[in-house]
Amino acid sequence: KIYNMSKMNVSETGSDLKCLTSWVEMDESSDFSIDNIPFGVCSFPGTTNARPRCCTRLGDTVIDLSTLSEAGLFDVIDHLDSPTYTFSRDTLNNFMTHPKQVWADVRMRIIELLVSPTSCNALTPDARLRTNLPLQKTAFHDVSSENENIQVQMNLPASIQDYTDFYSSREHATNVGTMFRDPANALNPNWTRLPVGYHGRSSSIFVSGHEVTRPCGQLQINPTDASEGSNYGPSRLLDFELEVAFFVGGKPNPHGERLTMERSSERIFGFVLMNDWSARDIQKFEYVPLGPFGSKNFATTISPWIITTMALEKYKCATSYEIQEPIPLEYLQDKDYSSYDIELEIAIMGENMKEPVKVSKSNLRNLYWNAKQQ
Amino acid sequence: KIYNMSKMNVSETGSDLKCLTSWVEMDESSDFSIDNIPFGVCSFPGTTNARPRCCTRLGDTVIDLSTLSEAGLFDVIDHLDSPTYTFSRDTLNNFMTHPKQVWADVRMRIIELLVSPTSCNALTPDARLRTNLPLQKTAFHDVSSENENIQVQMNLPASIQDYTDFYSSREHATNVGTMFRDPANALNPNWTRLPVGYHGRSSSIFVSGHEVTRPCGQLQINPTDASEGSNYGPSRLLDFELEVAFFVGGKPNPHGERLTMERSSERIFGFVLMNDWSARDIQKFEYVPLGPFGSKNFATTISPWIITTMALEKYKCATSYEIQEPIPLEYLQDKDYSSYDIELEIAIMGENMKEPVKVSKSNLRNLYWNAKQQ
Which residue of B198, B252, B286 is in closest CB contact with A196? Predict the structure, then answer.
């Protein structure tokens, strides 16, 4: 057993909402602040709310959006025809197919409902949830570590049809290229010209914490000579990578219609942490010439709360590269070539270890190809 | 515009059902004979049946299974709890998640309803559809070329989450290897030891006949030197392959549980023709080291009717290889290493051509890795 703990810290770098406070009790240091408003899918086993539904979270309080919508609190949102239909579903897919304006309106509406009446911001607080204690009792679920009575089960936030894993860290690609080839030609010629990627198996995407079974497969007998063949057995080189994934929302693109770089930012709903689990020994034998397959099929884990691009907007920053060199071809040029200042770290804890050991840290701004280009 | 016409002919090689005839009028030479009973999803634009539903077909008659199930004709099937629910859906996914016995029972039930009372077989005909003219009027749709009033729209038969494209023709892999490397080492060492495959993009799978838009992408400037970079533009080397695809049904495999070779045949629901559209020039520049991506993302087309493994059983035969050499590792050994005797051919017709030109013919038995091993 390996416990894998990835963490995403967003460091406050100024926001027009930063003076907001909520009337809901919460720890000020929580990542789930009132200007975060993540989206996820929860169920509450053993209660009458056992069916998964859409939720958000503030501090240690998970807030059931289906209950709020049944109470009519989202009826003011334009173009979200039936909020109850949308939020009582067991995935966020329906919500995510709405245009970005609807995502933004829902987020602001949740903030209006949760903000203190004395908050310094120009926002107009709405008292309908604050003054309705029975509604709070139904919709709020305390997940603080002290409250062991309440079980909240986090589910996969969306039904994922296709998923693509891009190879967007220049340093990572250079390291791998150095190992497999030589340092002078570490990057393949295509790498700096397009975001190289492959499709993964969406049926093996699980929420973080899912117990991953060590895969079996064909392991090359002689590490330097594939022609000596392979044996079947459990992977001995199991590995996971620290990645950040994003969900594409909006109306599906009609077949044959290209999405321009300008319009791509309207379509990115939000981000999660991702661990791409890999069996490196299985990968070594199988991957020529069609890419990784069984070595990556057994598990991909993502964090359950989607942090929206609206919430991340205030952490927007230049990438570590500032400019791309060579300049990408026109269709891939991002006039607003930027990323987000999000510290990332990854730690592991083996079965016999007392505490997790941090094995790597980075920042989302260190990726060469940004989400829009991917 | 290129019209692509793939065809699958199943040559009669003996069957216990071969003496069956139907009371429904049909051309004896039709591929949709009474022992075929394919499954598909149709809609009938401009009628009150405009919503897609599950169908089968006999000769030129498309038969609406949702209407038959509403009339109670499938109530005798065990373990298909609600046939109306199953067949009124807009995909076959629900039906396909049932066990193989249910697929077989539904098929035999349809044959009982359609078989002539004078048929020579031991099957007991059921007169309930034959004697109910109003039900026939609702459920039957004549799609013969003479009847231009009836429009039947064929839809994608299933909602496809993951799809994998295997590289299972030894001759094809040898040809490609000879072109890219040298004839003496045409096959990579892994090729004869495992079915090499990659995931495709399921959102670009369409029913045959869908108009495919020529994709744009990065084309390598110097064909022999990738380091000279690429230009963006429409693919000039658009290509499609003649392939056969199959649908995996049954209860989803729990994560971490392996499907044995013995159990794999219970899970293969049926086969369709497939064209894997490829932009070879885009593929050339992009595919190192993670495999094909944008070059295969724009379209994959499949035929609308799924021919079940039950219907194909009588065409079962040895593969062209008879045995696999080297012997696969134990987990991949198929004691019943076999295929189906299905003639395959592919023709194209350019916009200025008067008739299609056959460009290739083969037989499903020529694949080295069979469906169970894939």
Answer: B286
